[in-house]
Each structure stands twice: as C-alpha cells, then as structure tokens.
Amino acid sequence: MDVKEVGQKLIAALERDPPWGVTVEVTPEVTGAGGTRRAMPPRFRAARKALRDGYGKEPVSIGCGGSIPFVEPFSRSWAASGAP
Known about the structure:
By secondary structure, the chain is mainly alpha-helical. Helix content is 46%, strand content 0%. The protein has helices spanning 3-16, 42-55, 71-81. The protein starts with a helix and ends with a helix.
C-alpha cells in the first residue's frame, strides 16, 4: 500500500463523518511503509521450540502489525543484506 495515499484516505474518512459534537483535526507527523519478514531464521525457530516445549502445542504464526516507522528502513536494509 502507498503510505501517503492510505494516510489521505484515512484523514478524509475521519473528517467526513465525525460523531456529533466532535471536531477532527489531523496533524500527520511521521510515516513508514509496511514490511514483512520471513519468520524462520534461527532465532524464530528457537522461540517456536521454546513455546512448543513450554505449552506442549505447536505455535501458530500469524501476521500482525503496528506503527513503528523506523522499522521499515531497517527491514529493507536487512533484506538487501541477504540476511535470513
């Protein structure tokens, strides 16, 4: 997704129909593109083993997200380095 486009659409939606009596004022500060990482490097395998050993069940990997703008450039750099 394009960060600027999504941000503009979110702001438009918030400003378009605020609840009665609510004034919406948006001041964008920082943005960061989304990213994903393959979750099978050694540290992830060790974490999954610890969860499996501790809970006696196979852990389930799910996608989840958050807003930490500095992660995207690190993730891009990590991927470019060829690191697992």
